[in-house]
Amino acid sequence: MKKTLLTLVACCTAALSFSAAAQFAKPEDAVKYRKSAFTVMASHFGRLGAMAQGKVPFDAKLATENAEIVANMAKLPWHAFGEGTDTADTKAKPEVWKQNAKFKEAAEKLQAESVKLVAAAKTGKEDGFKAAFSATGGACKTCHDDFKSK
Length: 150
Ligand code: ASC
What we know:
Shape: globular
Order of helices and strands: HHHHHH
Number of domains: 1
CATH topology: Four Helix Bundle (Hemerythrin (Met), subunit A)
Structural class: mainly alpha
Bound molecules: ascorbic acid
């Protein structure tokens, strides 16, 4: 009985800390979090861009490492666009919340394209990598056009 109770407490604590991780004390914290994820994503996407544009030689291993970071970062920002985070220091347009289904679709599109980008980088084929880079960049752009002010 005591053991069952202890297990229950352990499970509840784990569940609590998980949901706490998905929340923020203040709207500013959520904005800082999502901006940070986008900043890291942009840095690594930029390194891939240099390869896609031939400014640095294509290197499948480096491309894969950078694409994996992009794909991981692409999972993070979305839960930080909660209610009440539209008024802080943000370039997010009101459409993020007004057209939330469309925003979610755009977020999922980026995640899907960045997963394909990892796969393309792994094959070591430069043409496929360039095409996947372009598709991922397109997903960035669509979302910026519709949901981010200049
Ligand atoms: C980048 C970057 C973005 C996207 C976007 C694509 O390298 O920082 O936000 O590409 O410009 O249109």
